[in-house]
Amino acid sequence: YGSYIRGENKKVWVNESDGVTALLGEVWPGETVFPDFTNPDCTSWWVEECKLFYNVVPYDGIWIDMNEVSSFIKGSKNGCAQNDLNYPPFTPSILDKLMFSKTLCMDAVQKWGKHYDVHSLYGYSMAISTQKVIEALFPGKRSFLISRSTFVGSGKHTGHWLGDNAATWDHLKWAIPGMLDFNLFGIPYIGADICGFFDNTTEELCRRWMQVGAFYPFSRNHN
């Protein structure tokens, strides 16, 4: 796989706690490494890979996803060490009561520091790197970039949608304060999946959602 081989040669992955061995997780394709977008070498690699893909399939914008960062396993294929980063003295009430559930080990190493300290910046750093792709491919033009994971300040680089919602009246209602919140966070280009992402919608629900969704800054039916 060319993208992996070129990335491996440039050592652009998030590493295990030793700072050398690429951390292995699992996402849709199966066994997966994770680009460390806090590493300038990774940004350069990402720009070139997106250019290569554009030469095969021309596109007008980029939608980046699963960048919380998400993994289908806990931490790493090799497991996570027993230490205060992976098992801190106080763990909030989160999934499985584990800091690394469905994500990376907290002692994984990135250019900006331990994953424990920069976990919430993964999507932010990916958006910065992807904006450089947009600038390289479409110089002087306005393009399209949305990210599922964002942080305060991400609005300078990307838009956002509220994630995987459901086809329910409650989720239609909750999307409105959700989008207003993101305006407070400095991310004005914001939307929700119109008609809901999960479950089957109904004609009335989808019609009403399309009506209110016409006023979303980012308006997309994704049912």
Automatic annotation (TrEMBL):
Alphabetical UniProt keywords: Glycosidase, Hydrolase, Signal
Domain Glycoside hydrolase family 31 TIM barrel positions: 3-223
PROSITE patterns: GLYCOSYL_HYDROL_F31_1, GLYCOSYL_HYDROL_F31_2
Coiled-coil boundaries: none
UniProt superkingdom: Eukaryota
GO biological process, one term: carbohydrate metabolic process
InterPro entries in the cross-refs: GH, Glyco_hydro_31_AS, Glyco_hydro_31_CS, Glyco_hydro_31_TIM
Pfam families: Glyco_hydro_31_2nd
Keyword Hydrolase annotated: yes
GO molecular function, one term: alpha-1,4-glucosidase activity
The family this protein is said to belong to: Belongs to the glycosyl hydrolase 31 family.
PANTHER family: ALPHA-GLUCOSIDASE, P-TYPE DOMAIN-CONTAINING PROTEIN
Annotated protein name in UniProt: Sucrase-isomaltase, intestinal
Source organism (scientific name): Pygoscelis adeliae (Adelie penguin)
